[in-house]
Amino acid sequence: MPLVPMKQILDEAVKGGYGVGAFNVNNMEQIHGIMKAASETRSPVILQASRGALAYTNMYYIKYMVLAAVEDNPGIPISLHLDHGNSFETCKQAIELGFTSVMIDGSLKEDSKTPTNFEENVQITKEVVGYAHKFGVSVEGELGTLGGIEDGVGSGKVMLTDPDEAIKFIEFTGVDALALAIGTSHGAYKFKAEPTLAMDIINSIEERIPGMPLVMHGSSSVPAELIDIINEYGGKMEKTMGVPMKSIQEAIKRGIRKVNVDTDGRLAITGAIRKYMHENPAEFDPRSYFGEAREAVYRTVKGKMEDCGTKGHAGDYNPLTLEDMKKFYESK
Ligand code: G3H
Ligand code: 13P
Ligand code: ZN
Predict the structure, then answer these.
(1) Sign (positive/negative) of CA torsion 157, 163, 165, 168?
(2) In Å, how far from its chain's centre is CA 235?
(3) Residue 110: how many CB atoms within 10 A of its CB?
(4) How many whole angstroms from 150 Cα to the centroid of ligand 2?
(5) Is 83 a catalytic residue?
(6) pLDDT tens sequence across 266-302
(7) pLDDT at position 130, please?
(8) Do 129 and 99 contact (CB within 8 A), yes or no?
């Protein structure tokens, strides 16, 4: 099947009551490891590329590596999504490249640091929705800001999503999915102790717009065992906590349908390479340690697919094309 529009993957997740993992990808090993997990668990999956990933891979490589995954996994619904688009131009570029979904993060200005106000956010999001839907491409917006800064993305200040504003935002913009700020943050250093997230925000939106796909960014669990491997083999990471899987599962029960994960993949790769290098100092074939990294991504992602409930759902539906989605949006 060709790349699937993200709206369909999330609408199906609404019906099935599960949360789809959206994994950040930058290289072949990440994509391959994630797809091995998706194929074994028969899970739909969202592969997402940030602006950093597009710059790192010179754009075309990300596109064609993902298309390789599509060809290699004909029975798995895969969506290619732009993560944290910062401007109309960035979103347009991703659409031209063949992405089936884009995020316009209008919670921040184009510098990806300065928070916007509600009106500014509505304006840019509406503009992107108007353009993307003409091509059948799905759009994720964001209201509220997360804590944490990942490679310059983020204001560093948490502003939780106001549910009343969220309802208006969804109506004014026509977004297909909405990212909420419920107390998570990007990166490895999220919490010092087990967090309490603002789960009620999810309910109060879900009750008023049932079936609206809601998105949780900053969903890495930062497992202690991954930090321990990194530190055991020469790394220097501080003690930290992420979002426990039981909190993610609770969020899914309440209406989260897209679960964004980048950091846990990074930790898995770094630990695997450090360990391999330490144990095999004479080895110099990159396939040996990149292969270990790929397996580590596979193990981490497989566990998440099982825990978030996507397992077995790959064959539930006939994939829609962007042409189908174009007609759907035109008819609205
Ligand atoms: O939310 C941000 C993601 O973790 C992407 O990070 O810009 O370093 O690729 P990146
Ligand atoms: P983590 O840093 O928790 O993996 O979050 C990733 C994310 O939200 C990407 O948009
Ligand atoms: Zn994010």
Answers:
(1) positive
(2) 26
(3) 15
(4) 8
(5) yes
(6) 999 999 999 999 999 999 999 999 999 999 999 999 9
(7) 98
(8) no
User: pLDDT by residue (tens digit) across 104-132?
Assistant: 999 999 999 999 999 999 999 999 999 99
Distance in angstroms (rounded) separating the CA atoms of residues 103 and 63:
17
Q: Which residue has the tokens 């095999």?
A: 280
According to the model, what pLDDT value does residue 17 have? Answer: 98
- What confidence category does residue 1 fall into, taking pLDDT thresholds of 50, 70 and 90? confident
Helix H or strand E segment including 46: strand 45-49
209-225 average pLDDT score: 98
pLDDT in tens, 141-183: 999 988 755 555 566 667 999 999 999 999 999 999 999 999 9
Ligand 1 center to residue 49 CA distance, Å? 8
The one-letter amino acid code at 251 reads A
Ligand nearest to the CA of 153: 1
Atom of ligand 2 nearest to the CA of 266: 4
Count CB-CB contacts under 10 A for residue 61: 15
52 lines ligand 1 (CB under 6 A): yes
The neighbourhood of ligand 3, an ion, using CB within 5 A, equals: 217
Residues of the chain with pLDDT > 70, as a percent, come to: 97
CB 292 near ligand 1, within 6 Å = no
Catalytic residue among 11, 83, 105, 176: 83
Q: What is the Cα–Cα distance from 118 to 125, expressed in whole angstroms?
A: 11
Cβ of 24 below 6 Å from ligand 2: yes
Rounded-to-integer distance, Cα 328 and Cα 133, Å: 9
Q: Is 150 in the pocket of ligand 1 (CB under 6 A)?
A: yes
DSSP state of 183: S
**DSSP structure class, residue 219:** -
Give the relative orientation of helices 28-41 and 263-279 as an angle to the nearest 10 degrees.
Answer: 110
Predicted TM-score (pTM) of the model is 0.97
* Atom nearest to 222 CA in ligand 2: 3
User: Does residue 188 have its Cβ closer than 6 Å to ligand 1?
Assistant: no
